């Protein structure tokens, strides 16, 4: 019985009275310690530990590099909507999915970058040029600079391996409506088992250049007129979250198709920012 309490950590070896140290005899205490199931104290401890393991998210701090792209509203052509996600990778460069670049259509082409996930937003900066990578990623050059504090930390392989969870961060979607931001936990799927049915002009999708993930407990849309999480078409950004709550950027949703998935747990690709060719593209002279 003493051993079971020591294993359950309701007793320590030092608290047990030794009757005869030479013969290693152990005397039972007069009253047994209270069982964890009958005490509220362990529940308080558990709550405390849960808070330590799940630090609260301050989006403006954790995701200070996240931004949205401003488009001309296709319904009215005289107002604006903030639709796709982007991230600041240099003080004057924002990165997004090629799907959100709209390079061949002025209505689908964003005009400005707005830094921040929630109000108060940072200043909007106008876009002045773009650079394409493999019909997969696009860099927008900005007319002025953001603060260096807004620059995203791109993950190393060690960051990815030590992460506590993976989170896709972006903006919910609804035609003509400015929806709020979301974070959606995802999990890696073995690349060979990835089931992607829609394809685009992106070339060379393989395990060294892309991640395959699937959402975990994706909430269902509450109605036909509500905003909904669209990880791929909204250019969501894949983050590796560490135990201390900090996050680095691992990838951007790959534009393998324009529509949102009907299945909440459908697989999708993220273009890896750990890939040397992508890093050269970002770090090149633009």
From TrEMBL:
Source organism, top-level taxon: Eukaryota
InterPro entries membership: Peptidase_S1_PA
Protein name (database record): Peptidase S1 domain-containing protein
Lineage start: Eukaryota, Metazoa, Ecdysozoa, Arthropoda, Hexapoda
